[in-house]
Amino acid sequence: HRMWQAWDMALDLCLAQLPTVLENEDRYVHSSFFEDQLTAFQVWLNLGSKNRSPPEQLPIVLQVLLSQVHRLRALELLGRFLDLGPWAVNLALSVGIFPYVLKLLQSNARELRPLLVFIWAKILAVDN
């Protein structure tokens, strides 16, 4: 599966630098795995066709919501995805979006509120 191949590559890159980090105290270079997956998800959104398979990256996008570094971009992309219609909301619910959004709604990050309210409204509109 392509997602496992991408994950294996990211893991290999992380492990390959371990000896030099431990021996020379070099700085660890963070993996671009999550950023790459967000970009792939964005490309999927930009394709515009309704007759396509669900995005492989959706579970990763939800996981990225836990990272402050990529959270804003992940929320923007997630909002665009949910805006595609009830099928997208149902797919997001099926991979476990609910606890992530609920947790973020309770945070003090005011800059995220408009996106979170939009996402929450999409969920409520579909999840009667």
TrEMBL record:
UniProt KW keywords: Signal
Signal peptide feature range: 1-16
One biological process term in Gene Ontology: cellular response to amino acid stimulus
Source superkingdom: Eukaryota
GO cellular component entries: cytoplasm; TORC1 complex
Gene Ontology molecular-function annotations: protein-macromolecule adaptor activity
PANTHER family (alphabetical): REGULATORY-ASSOCIATED PROTEIN OF MTOR
Name of the protein in its database record: Uncharacterized protein
